[in-house]
Each structure stands twice: as C-alpha cells, then as structure tokens.
C-alpha cells in the first residue's frame, strides 16, 4: 500500500533516541522505510480499495476509432490482465469501469446515460481521446462537446487517438486515485454545465 514515508516518531513512537532532535533517521528506520508496507499493516478500507483496483471490470463499449486502440489493451503486448481487468463485461450490471472511447453523438447520449445508470456502485469513467473529452475536431451540433456533460468523468486521456500506452497510463492513474481514497466522480456527483 503506497503510504508516504515517515519517521518512527511520526507514527507515535516516543523513545528518547527517536525523539533526538538533530539525529537523522536511524539504520533501523532506514531499513524499515515505509513501516506500513514493510510490516504488512493496513486497514480494511485500504484493503478494499486495493482489491477494487485488481478487479475493475470494464464495460464492453466502444464508439469510434479510439475503441480500436482500447481493444488492444487486452492483448499480450499491453496485458491488462496483470490488473485482473481483462474481462470486458457485456452487461453494465457486471462492470464497474466505463471507458468512453470515441466521439459521443447526440443520439448516443441517452444510451450512454442508461448504461452508466445500470452499472453498480462503485463505478468509474474514463474519457478516452479528444472527442470524448472535448468533442475534439467535431465542433458541431451533432456531437456532445465532452461526455462529462452527461456523466461524471474520473480520468481524461488526451490524444487522437491515444495510444494503448496512454490508456494504460490513465488506468494506472485511476488505480492510484482509488488506492489513495480519492472519491469517484460518481460519489462527488454532478456533471459539467
Ligand atoms: S479522438 Fe481521434 S481517434 Fe478518437 S474518436 Fe476522436 S477522431 Fe477518432
């Protein structure tokens, strides 16, 4: 579990030697480093957050050219299975990650909202590519100028199209957020006005 490195005094150890003001970290402290991860201590909340990042199943959902890049993340080259995420679910009721990969036509706004509403909590959303994030080059009445106008978004991945590595970066950033206890966009609520 990623926790900032602290001195033993910061963890409440009150020995005279540890509290020596001008003494740096001892050998013991240096070896221990992050005491929480070294000793295997954690909280139930952190354990749940960790397990959520190792079983975050994406919904099978693609909109345009970006979806081709998204599909490749299950290949051996990018290997999303290392996070336990290779099972793209065909039902939103079995998925907790929605990757919006491509431009969102006005016609698709209602189905996307319905799919999102059918997903169980907790749930997260990644806006993949310029079109999903901002409408991209399609600055016209037919395309929603960012999916965050209809559903809350956790992570935006830039690019046209983003390479699979960029999507992986977005997924890893999302995992870091979950493990750090940052509430999902769904919990924070609200969409862009
Ligand atoms: S961002 Fe580029 S690649 Fe992705 S859907 Fe838009 S035009 Fe296609």
Instruction: Label the structural class.
Output: mainly alpha
Q: At the third CATH level, what is the topology name? A: Rossmann fold
For this structure, what is the CATH class?
A: Alpha Beta
Count of structural domains:
1
Sequence of strands across the biggest β-sheet: 1-2-3
Description:
- This protein has helices at residues 27-32, 35-39, 44-53, 65-71, 106-118, 129-134, 164-179, 185-188; strands at 97-101, 124-128, 155-157.
- α3 (44-53) runs antiparallel to α7.
- It has a 3-stranded parallel β-sheet with strand order 1-2-3.
- It is mainly alpha-helical and 193 residues long.
- The longest helix has 16 residues, at 164-179.
- The protein contains 8 helices and 3 strands, in the order ααααβαβαβαα.
- It has one domain: Rossmann fold (3-Layer(aba) Sandwich), CATH 3.40.50.
- Iron/sulfur cluster (SF4) is lined by residues 64-66, 102-103, 129-131, 136, 160-161.
Short description:
The chain is mainly alpha-helical. It has helices spanning 27-32, 35-39, 44-53, 65-71, 106-118, 129-134, 164-179, 185-188; strands at residues 97-101, 124-128, 155-157.
Task: Spell out the key features of this protein.
binds iron/sulfur cluster; mainly alpha; Rossmann fold; about 35% helix; about 190 residues
């Amino acid at each position: 579990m990623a926790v900032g490195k602290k001195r033993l005094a910061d963890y409440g150890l009150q020995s005279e030697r540890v509290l020596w003001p001008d003494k740096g970290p001892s050998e013991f402290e240096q070896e221990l480093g992050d005491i929480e991860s070294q000793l295997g201590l954690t909280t139930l909340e952190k354990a749940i957050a960790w397990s959520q990042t190792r079983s975050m199943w994406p919904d099978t959902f693609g909109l345009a050219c970006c979806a081709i890049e998204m599909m490749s993340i299950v290949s051996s080259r990018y290997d999303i299975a290392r996070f336990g995420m290779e099972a793209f679910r065909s039902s939103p009721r079995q998925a907790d990650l929605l990757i919006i990969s491509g431009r969102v036509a006005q016609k698709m706004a209602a189905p996307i909202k319905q799919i999102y509403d059918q997903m169980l909590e907790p749930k997260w959303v990644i806006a993949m590519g310029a079109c999903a994030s901002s409408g991209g080059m399609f600055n016209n009445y037919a395309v929603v100028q960012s999916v965050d106008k209809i559903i809350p978004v956790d992570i935006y991945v830039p690019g046209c199209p983003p390479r699979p590595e960029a999507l992986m970066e977005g997924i890893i950033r999302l995992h870091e957020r979950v493990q750090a206890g940052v509430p999902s966009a769904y919990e924070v609520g609200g969409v862009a006005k």
